[in-house]
UniProtKB/TrEMBL annotation, chain A:
The lineage of its organism: Eukaryota, Metazoa, Chordata, Craniata, Vertebrata. Chaperone protein which promotes assembly of the 20S proteasome as part of a heterodimer with PSMG1. The PSMG1-PSMG2 heterodimer binds to the PSMA5 and PSMA7 proteasome subunits, promotes assembly of the proteasome alpha subunits into the heteroheptameric alpha ring and prevents alpha ring dimerization. GO terms for cellular component: cytosol; nucleus. Transmembrane segments: none annotated. The gene is Psmg2. This is Proteasome assembly chaperone 2.
TrEMBL record, chain B:
GO terms for cellular component: endoplasmic reticulum. This is Proteasome assembly chaperone 1. Pfam families: PAC1. Belongs to the PSMG1 family. Signal peptide: none annotated. One of its GO terms (molecular function) is proteasome binding.
């Protein structure tokens, strides 16, 4: 499934042993994908390959992270892999939805690639429908996390210090007490499947998600990527001198492909 | 999501995953039905010439009615080109058959070969290839070719209204050409490259 880019002269396939794989779930508001765009764009990550898969709707375009004429002509497709060896980070970006009935095979192939490339852990950025929150979830932070048991052992302590809130389980049959509690992530796409499979296969996986609704999800992406940054420290959060707060939002670089998200310019004849 | 009138509706999500699909376990009957549908939606590529794999150095693919019509009007004729293959498929939007005698208004997918240089292949695909069939089409068509320094040119059309630009599309002079190319393509491109955030979907993208 993974095809490395031909860099001519470099090693045949990049080595991801011990790396952290950061990836999005195609979920409500596409927040995970937008957050991943911010990471790739800000850290100026290099593309190292792509996934050749029949599970995602095909699409192609020119380089979405182009900053100048010279680097704007590289083709980009629906599932690409970027890496930053200095931070032992490998990032998968998914740019189109799953083809019907194909999300399960994709998850299986993805997890077996994670194992064969010996990634140390997987961090999945996702989101869930805000309107499905219960009364308690309506209050406080809209951000949640989940850790597989293997990752809980490794980083559970550190995450506790961050004062994060774990995603609550809900009753399997709402309204009836004494039913078992299950994990329910509405609008989360493949999040639940990947998480439960990782738990049973001993893969170290963390899920970071935000409750949100469809709309202009750029602010949600910033919130999610800052949440991720609290843990992984991908960029330094500088203290802003003007209002004395730590707000790293301005340090994330918006990619050029985010232009015109809500339509073209207006025809002058309209007025 | 509550609308202005107070009724609650389920908003379609850009995420694209059907919740119902993921919640339900597949029964043996479901599996059987799914297998039958998959068989019905299989893409069949039928070649009329004896030698397979076909040796190909240039492959021009016209996808969609406009592009197919362009080839019919300006390139194809019965003197220089011969039909060598056809794609048979079915989906909710169209059905193609194995006949090579087609009308311009039919849905079809035909392959032609230049008689004077049989390594030049041309494909006219006026039928819609559904998203679950695009990969299959790709693998079966390219799988039956012996590529010899293969250069592929894909012709397709998109509505101007889909083009993303700073100005309004009403003032844009259309039709206009845009191109995408792989880095292996070293020749001069005859028109400007497609700027972000515009993308190409479906079979041309595949």
């Amino acid at each position: 499934m993974f095809i490395p880019c031909d860099r001519g002269g470099g090693p045949a396939a990049p080595d991801f042993k011990g790396f952290t794989l950061l990836m999005p779930a195609v979920s409500v508001g596409n927040v995970g994908q937008l957050a991943i765009d911010l990471v790739i764009s800000t850290l100026d990550m290099t593309k190292v390959g792509y996934f050749y898969t029949d599970c995602l709707v095909p699409m192609v375009g020119n380089n979405p992270y182009a900053t100048a004429e010279e680097n704007s002509v590289e083709l980009s497709i629906n599932a690409e892999v970027y890496s930053l060896p200095s931070k032992k980070l490998v990032v998968l970006q998914i740019r189109s939805p799953f083809i019907k009935n194909k999300y399960r095979p994709f998850c299986e192939t993805l997890l077996s690639w994670v194992k064969s490339s010996k990634c140390a852990r997987v961090v999945l950025l996702s989101s869930s429908h805000a309107y499905q929150r219960d009364d308690e979830q309506l209050l406080g932070t809209p951000l949640r996390y989940l850790l597989t048991p293997d990752l809980e052992k490794a980083v559970g302590g550190h995450v506790k210090e961050l004062n994060w809130k774990e995603m609550e389980k809900v009753a399997a049959y709402p309204g009836i007490s004494n039913t078992e509690k299950v994990l329910h992530i509405p609008g989360g796409g493949i999040t639940k499947l990947l998480f439960t499979e990782s738990c049973s296969e001993g893969i170290q996986m963390a899920v970071l998600l935000k409750f949100c609704s469809e709309g202009d999800n750029i602010p949600d992406a910033f919130v999610l990527v800052n949440y991720l940054n609290e843990w992984l420290q991908l960029i330094k959060s500088e203290v802003s001198t003007s209002n004395n707060s730590t707000d790293p939002s301005s340090q994330w670089k918006i990619p050029s492909s985010w232009r015109l998200l809500f339509g073209n310019g207006l025809p002058p004849a309209l007025f | 999501m509550a609308t202005f009138f107070g009724e609650v509706v389920v908003a379609p999500s850009r995420a694209g995953l059907d919740e119902e699909e993921e919640a339900r376990e597949e029964t043996p009957e479901d599996r059987e039905i799914r297998r039958e549908i998959e068989k019905k939606r299989e893409v069949e590529v039928l070649w009329s010439c004896a030698e397979e794999p076909l040796v190909c150095s240039r492959f021009i693919v016209a996808i969609g009615r406009n592009a197919a019509a362009f080839l019919s009007s300006f390139i194809l004729d019965s003197v220089c080109w011969e039909v060598v293959g056809v794609v048979k498929l079915w989906n909710e939007w169209c059905r193609t058959s194995s006949t090579t005698n087609v009308l311009p208004t039919d849905s079809f997918c035909l392959f032609y070969r230049l008689i004077s240089d049989p390594t030049v292949l041309l494909c006219q695909c006026s039928c819609y290839v559904a998203e679950d069939q695009q990969f299959q089409w790709l693998e079966k068509v390219f799988g039956s070719m012996q590529k010899k320094g293969l250069q592929v040119t894909i012709l397709s059309t998109c509505p101007v209204a889909d083009y993303k630009t700073q100005e309004s599309t009403l003032t844009l002079v259309s039709p206009f050409l845009k191109a995408l190319k792989t880095k292996e393509f070293q020749e001069q491109v005859c028109c400007p490259l497609l700027e972000q955030p515009n993308i190409v979907r479906d079979l041309p993208a595949a």
